[in-house]
Structure formats: C-alpha cells, structure tokens
Amino acid sequence: MDLNTIIIVGGMSLTILLIVLMVFGTSDRQKIRQDRLESLVKLRYSKTRVSEKHDTVRKQDKDTSGIFATLNKYAPKREVLEKLLLKTGKNISIGQFTAIMAVVSCIITLFVALFFKLGILISLLFGSAVGIMGPLMVIRSIAERRLSLFLRDFPDAIDLMVRGLRSGLPVSESMLSVAREFDGPIGAEFKAVMESVQFGTDMEKALWNMVDRLPSADVKFFVITLSIQKDTGGNLADTLNNLSNILRSRKQMVLKVKALSSEAKASAMILGSLPFVLFAILSVLSPDYIFQLFEDPRGHVMLAVGGGLIFIGVMIMRKMIKFRM
C-alpha cells in the first residue's frame, strides 16, 4: 500500500473519530451541570411539574412516527453507554472510551489493509466494526465478571450484617463492617454506599444507586427488603437471614443450570471456533491456497457472506444456550 492510500485511510478514520466525539463528546462537567439543572426543575411546584409532564407526553406522541423517530429508537444511546461503563466499576468516561474505539478502529483498518491487501472501503468497514464491537464486548465482559464476583460472596456479606444486627449494631454500622471485612466489589460497593450517606444522600437512594451499578435480582431483593423494613418495621435480622437462604438457593439453581447446559455450550464453542481454526491451519500448511480469498474479488464476497453466516449461527446458538434466572 502506497503513502497516499495510508493517508486516505488515516483521514477517514480521523473523520470517524471526530464524528463519534461530536456525538458522545459532552464533557463530564457539562453533564453534572445538566443533572443539577434537572434536579432544580423537579423541585418546582406541582403545576409546573404537571405542565412539563403534559409537554413530555405531547412530545413523545409527536415523535413516535417518522424516519427520525425510527433512527432515534435504534441508534446507540449515551445513557446506555454510561450505564455500561458504570457497571465496570472503573473511572472511564465516554470520551476516553470513544477515543479507545477510534484508536482500535484505526489500528485494525491499517493492519487489514497492509497485511491482507484488501480495498480501502472493506478495510475501513472491517476496522470500524472491530473497533466498535471489540471494546464494547470487553467492557461488557468486565461488568459481568464484576457482577459475578459480587454475587459470589453476597450471601456471606448479608450473614455478616445479620450477626451485626443481632449484636445490637445499627444498619449503617453493619454495612460499614461489610465494607471493612470484604475485599473486591462487595467491599467497594458498600463503602461507596456509606460514603454517599455520609455526604448527605438518603440511604435508600444510595442503595438504589448500587442497583444501577450492579443490575441483579439478588441486589434488588436486598434493597427492597431494607426499604420495606424502613417503612413497616419488624425484625430486620430475621428478614435478612431468610433473604440470605433464598439467595443461596438461587445460586445453587444457577449452578445446576450451568452444569446441565455445559455440554451444549461446549458444542457451540467448538462449532463457532472451527472455521477460524481451519483457516489458521490452512494458512500455515498452504498459504497460497487460502490467501486467494483476499486477493480475488470473488474471495472478498465469499469472506463477507461466510462471516455473516458464521455471525448469525453464533448468535442463534448463543440464544439457544443462554438461560435467564
């Protein structure tokens, strides 16, 4: 590939970066100001809130049809990406994540164009797809791993709270003991909740913020239990003890489902990775034979069709073997 082609590819990648930054590039400081303004608007008198509600309903009714409403429905939302980054427990802003996607897209585009000698458009499309989907999959994997680590020791943390409550400690002190005794996501989350409470946030709101960072039915059960206890009273220690037993039973059921579906998951992994394994073997044994797919335009079409069919098959198998509890 000559220098002009590299400049064109780099320019197109830079253009994509600028477009993405324009879409998602609202600064964190501006986002904080917007949240404060929205909170002030919510504190207005009821008449203003009712009129705003009617305006919102009319706006939603107005925007429910048309091509722009359809594009807005299926377009990526900033709020969804913010929630996904929040679930990781890492201090990653949308601007930083967008820059990572742009850098990965440029690297993959140049690698494909130089190594496989594909066209500029195909290389750019492939690099953009990998640069966007790759970091999203990594972030999603980090969030799921963090949630699994939290749920692994969550019943033990509740048991520690039960022992603290039965010994006469208040709920806040019991949560502080969990934050001190547990490492990993559990200690960090309970510490974040107590820090929010110390800075003036309501306990219930701080707990629901934890649910936003850890979207799980187990965490919701815990927060709902504390909320109901706050309103109705009763023996919180016994209630949390029963909740701990229920969560352990759910965990056993999840492990049983995973054991029963492990064979199907192994088959799906083997079938999904088989084309790539065969490609790697043929590229070593007979590179002239396999690289004709990248040199001939008909091979490009075959690769595109084959890759699309493999992706559809993997998604179907993933849907078949995925169980939700």
Explained architecture:
The protein has 325 residues and is an all-alpha fold. Among the domains are: 148-256, Type II secretion system (T2SS), domain F (Receptor-associated Protein), CATH 1.20.81.30; 258-325. Helix content is 86%, strand content 0%. It is built from 15 helices and no strands. The longest helix has 50 residues, at 236-285. It is elongated, with a radius of gyration of 26 Å. The N and C termini lie far apart (52 Å). The model is unreliable at 22-30 and 44-64 (pLDDT under 50).
| CATH structural architecture of the domain at 148-256 | Up-down Bundle
Cα-to-Cα separation, first versus last residue: 52 Å
DSSP strand content: under 5%
- Return the CATH class of the domain at 148-256: Mainly Alpha
Elements, N to C (H/E): HHHHHHHHHHHHHHH
User: Based on helices, strands and strand pairing, what is the structural class?
Assistant: mainly alpha
Q: What is the number of helical segments per DSSP (H or I, 4+ residues)?
A: 15
Which regions are unreliable across 5 or more consecutive residues at pLDDT < 50?
A: 22-30, 44-64
Largest sheet report: none
CATH superfamily of the domain at 148-256: Type II secretion system (T2SS), domain F
Q: How much helix is in the residues?
A: over 70%
CATH topology of the domain at 148-256: Receptor-associated Protein
Rg to the nearest angstrom?
A: 26 Å
How many strands? 0
Key attributes of the depicted protein:
Receptor-associated Protein; 15 helices; 325 residues; mainly alpha
